[in-house]
Design goal:
Residues 1-21 form the signal peptide. The protein is mainly alpha-helical. It has three domains: 10-114, Four Helix Bundle (Hemerythrin (Met), subunit A); 116-215; 221-246. It is built from ten helices and no strands. It has helices spanning 2-42, 46-66, 72-90, 96-114, 125-141, 144-168, 171-186, 188-191, 197-215, 222-261. α1 packs antiparallel against α4. The relative contact order is 0.09.
Length: 262
Amino acid sequence: MKKMMMILAIIFAIMPSVSHANHTHNWEDLDIVADQALQLVKQQKYEDASKLLSYFSDQFSKLLSHESMLSMDELRIITATYEDASLALTTISMPHEERVQSVTTFRLVVDAIESEHQPLWTEMEGSVMTTFQSMKEAVSEGNSQHFNHQLNEFLGKYQMIYPSVRLDLEAEDSQRIDSFVTFLDKYRGEFLTNDSKMDHMNVIEEELTRMFKQMKKDDADPSLIWVMISTGSAIILTLTYVGWRKYKGDKEKHAARKRLND
């Protein structure tokens, strides 16, 4: 009876990690498909990329029919970015750069769902912050033309990563950052004449820095640690029990041989 309890303990401890491993493996396959589609778009092979996105949709639907692994927010975001990416590949008049941006946004979302730590969108920190610094310098110098040019470039990069940011950050944090950026874009016409313009720029810079820094923390998932502890403890207990039984059995055999020899 005790041995059976030990085995059951191991099974229940391992089951969550096995389920997670299956989900991770399936999503990694979709992540690869999304990445391949992006590479084809960069090579201007739009028709081939569109076929890959259709394949992604089929496999994604099959995955959802077997397991419910996404929240409603995640499902809405990945659906919206997928539709934008698909539309970008079938809109003949869309410039190449915008096609790449749309598919990149989708690809980053797929990765954000699959990655537990340091998602792919955080690798754009250098590019985003460099553009922001150029924009900040234009604000400081009062250069309206340069400011608008850099703001447009910054918004393009920001909008490319924002859906992924929504997935990875708490709603309050992502909405706070977005409100500052939206204000900057909405009032760009009179922004340079605002007395508190540099204060606003400094706040945005702090929020962006915090955003990237928060996602680069390589902390272990507490739930994963609990699974490891539970699984490890069950295995150790089982091995201890098996070892004790073996020791007891050997001891009894030795005693039996001794009695036989006597």
